[in-house]
Amino acid sequence: MAIHFVLFLLALTPSLSALYLLFLTLLSAAVPCPQPQSRSLRFDILIPAHDEATVIASTIGSLQALNWPRENYRLIVIADNCSDNTADIARNVNALVIERNEPNLRGKGYAIAFGADYSAHSGFADAIVVVDADSLASPNLLEAFAARIEQGAQALQANYGVSNPDASWRTRLMTIAYAAFHAVRGRARERLSVSCGLRGNGMSFTHGLLAMHPLQTFSLTEDIEQGVVLGLQGIRVWHVDEARIDTEIPSSGGNAASQRARWEFGRLELARKHAKSLFYNSIKNSNKISLDLAVDLVLPPLSHLALLNSVLLLAALLLPLFIGFNAFPWLTVALINMLIYSLYIFRGWQLCPLGLRALLTLFLAPFFMLWKLLILLKSSGKKQWVKTRRNAEEDAP
Question: Which residues of the chain carry a pLDDT beneath 70?
Answer without folding.
Answer: 220, 251-265, 371-373, 375-397
